[in-house]
Structures are given as structure tokens and as C-alpha cells.
Design a protein that fits this description.
The protein has 153 residues and is mostly helical.
């Protein structure tokens, strides 16, 4: 593997890690506002993102990088005041994560690429569950219209 390919993979891994940090934070907000009937679904998604985050930390270290840390807080794309807006946030989080994993699919090969494709698929499926409908090419079309959650100052 060339040094530039390794660096591109590391950069994409760091972006995926940053997105997982933001998703974990976002699901903390979702969990605080979601109605009782969907709390288990939110908790399952939260746990999935924590597990992906932990895996990405190890992968970044394996490539000799220093994992990007979580920010103390993240700007939400809109106010989350009730269960309905919590569901919208969950779908948005999944769309953003899918977009970053689509970048990781492009930047990597082999097992890492397969794992990124699986993570993209899982995020897309969760987004469909939250939204109640699907979009064409999850992780791609939305990527152009939506930037990743940004840390607050």
C-alpha cells in the first residue's frame, strides 16, 4: 500500500470517527426526547455507534494515527424539543454517518472497505426506520446537501 493510499485511508477513518463521535452525542439528545415506544430503538442505535466509534479508534491507532477526540458538544441541525424532532434528528444522524462511510468505502480496500460498506448499509437501514422511507443511493445524494455535525465553540 502506498503512503498516499494509507494517508487517504487514515483521513477517511478519522472523518468516520468524528462522525461517530457526533452520532453518539446526537443519540444522547434523541434518547432524552424520544417517546417511550422508540427508546429501545434509540438505545440500540446509540450502542451501535459507540461500538463503531471504538472500532475506529483501534483502526486509526493501527495505522499509526492519533484518533480525533470527541468534541465537548456538537451543534444540532435544528432544535430537538419533542419526540417528533428527536426522530428527525436520528434520521439526520444516520444520513450523515452514511455519507462519511461512503467516503471511507471510496478511500479504502479489502476488509476495511467491506466493513465501511457494512457500516454504510446499517446507517441507511436505521435512517429508513427512523424516516419511514428510503432515499436513492444512501450516503451519496444526501452528502452533497448535508455537512457533518460540527463541534460547538
Amino acid at each position: 500500500m502506498s503512503e498516499s493510499t494509507k494517508q487517504a485511508g487514515l483521513t477517511a477513518l478519522q472523518a468516520a470517527l468524528a462522525a461517530e463521535h457526533a452520532a453518539v452525542y446526537g443519540y444522547g439528545v434523541v434518547g432524552g426526547r424520544i417517546r417511550e415506544g422508540r427508546r429501545t430503538e434509540a438505545r440500540t442505535a446509540y450502542d451501535a455507534h459507540r461500538a463503531r466509534r471504538d472500532t475506529l479508534v483501534r483502526e486509526v491507532r493501527d495505522l499509526g494515527g492519533k484518533p480525533v477526540p470527541a468534541a465537548p458538544g456538537y451543534a444540532l441541525p435544528f432544535a430537538v424539543t419533542d419526540s417528533e424532532s428527536a426522530v428527525r434528528l436520528a434520521a439526520e444522524l444516520e444520513d450523515r454517518v452514511a455519507g462519511v462511510y461512503s467516503d471511507l468505502v471510496r478511500a479504502t480496500t479489502g476488509e476495511r472497505r467491506a466493513a465501511a460498506a457494512l457500516a454504510l448499509r446499517e446507517a441507511a437501514v436505521r435512517a429508513v426506520r427512523w424516516r419511514g422511507g428510503s432515499v436513492a443511493f444512501p450516503g451519496l445524494a444526501e452528502r452533497a446537501a448535508t455537512a457533518s455535525a460540527s463541534p460547538t465553540a
